[in-house]
């Protein structure tokens, strides 16, 4: 099953189940040892920062526009 199909089907789940799915996936990623301890720590720190100030974000459209601008230079 493709990741796109899994993502599409997961959107049909109630929010509580989607949150639990995310937590379970994250725990599996941490346990897989594919991330270095530093990478996992960085991600956790950034998540903590986001939870403290969830309005301090950049939209995907803005990120794409910035990248397009850099690529055109």
Descriptive report:
The chain is mainly α and 73 residues long. The chain has 2 domains: 1-34, no CATH class; 39-73, no CATH class. The chain has 4 helices and no strands. The protein has helices at 3-10, 15-32, 37-52, 60-72. The longest helix has 18 residues, at 15-32.
Provide the number of structural domains: 2
Count of discrete alpha- or pi-helical segments spanning 4 or more residues: 4
Identify the overall geometry: extended
Helix content: over 70%
Which H/E pattern describes the elements?
HHHH
Biggest sheet descriptor: none
Radius of gyration (CA) equals 16 Å
Quick summary of this structure?
The protein has helices at 3-10, 15-32, 37-52, 60-72.
Secondary structure topology:
Layout: H1 3-10, H2 15-32, H3 37-52, H4 60-72
Spell out the key features of this protein.
mainly alpha; 4 helices; 73 residues; 2 domains; extended; single chain
């Amino acid at each position: 099953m493709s990741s796109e199909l899994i993502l599409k089907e997961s959107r049909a789940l109630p929010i509580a189940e989607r949150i639990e799915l995310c937590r379970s996936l994250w725990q599996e990623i941490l346990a897989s040892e594919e991330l270095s301890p530093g990478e996992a720590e960085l991600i956790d720190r950034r998540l903590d920062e986001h939870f403290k100030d969830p309005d301090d974000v950049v939209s995907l459209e803005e990120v794409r526009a910035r990248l397009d601008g850099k690529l055109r230079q």
